[in-house]
Each structure stands twice: as C-alpha cells, then as structure tokens.
Amino acid sequence: MGVIVGPRVIDAGLSLQLAWVSPVTVAAGYPSPAQDYFDGRIDLNEHLIKDITSTFVVRVTGDSMERAGISDGDELIVNRALEPKDGCVVIAVLDGELTVKRLRLTASGVVLQAENPKYPDIRVSALSELTIWGVATRCLHHV
To answer: What are phi and psi of 68, to 5 degrees?
Structure first.
C-alpha cells in the first residue's frame, strides 16, 4: 500500500554529509574520457533540505508508488511546511493510517492516487478524516 514508517527528525546541528563532487558530468550513454580528480565537497543539506525545522525523513514500505520512482525501502525527504497541491506526492494520514500517495484535488473531491496499477485510487469520503502530514520533496533511492 505504500505505508511510511517512523519519521525521523533531521537535527539542525547535524549535517547529512559533505560529499565529494566531480567537476565533470558522468555519461549515462556511451562512456567518455573521465577526469581522475574531484573538485571539492558539496553540502547535501544545501541541496536536499530547504527548511531544516520542518523537514523529516521517512522510510517507505510497499510498492504502491513505484511508477513515481519510489520503491520499497527508499527514504523520502518530507517538508511539513509546504502547502500540498494537486499532483504532489504527500504523506497522508487517512483515518489514523499513514500512507504515501499522489494528491489529486478533483471536482468530486480528494483522491489519494497510487502509482502502481495493482492498487486502486483512494477516494476520500466526506466521513473520512484526512490530514496531509507533509509533502515529499526528494526520494533517496537505493541502487
């Protein structure tokens, strides 16, 4: 179903990591002559997190979002301060259950859309309790 497990706070005092960055791009097609050196370090916080106070990391279980590039075991960077909009991948709390889905705001109401044809869309009824917990901004995908 694409359920998330335990959000983790990213502490303001901690850095995700400073990683080496190459001054050249890496070809995904035919190989090109590569440079043997790296140009310096890149701060992953700067590139992945816009608001440290409202950003969390959640781990995904399940395969309901695989066509969105989100696989079982991936971690999502989720910003709770962002306004959820139509088409966003969100962490939703529906009747007390956490799930990750694409938010669809339609004329007939709210739909939580799976990105896997094995799973039906969830049409949120008027009697349901829905809270959008946060908006996913990045997926840390294992390769």
So the answer is: -95, 5
CB atoms within 10 A of CB 105: 12
Give, for 48, the enclosing helix (H) or strand (E).
Answer: helix 44-48
Give the number of other Cβ atoms within 10 Å of residue 29's Cβ. 5
CA distances from 113 to 5, 53, 56, 105 (A): 19, 28, 22, 10
Query: Which tens digits make up the pLDDT trace of 62-88?
Result: 999 999 999 999 989 999 999 999 999
What is the set of active-site residues?
Answer: 64, 101
Q: Strand order in 75-79's β-sheet? A: 3-9, 55-61, 75-79, 130-140, 89-94, 97-106, 109-113, 122-123
Is the pTM value of this prediction over 0.85? no
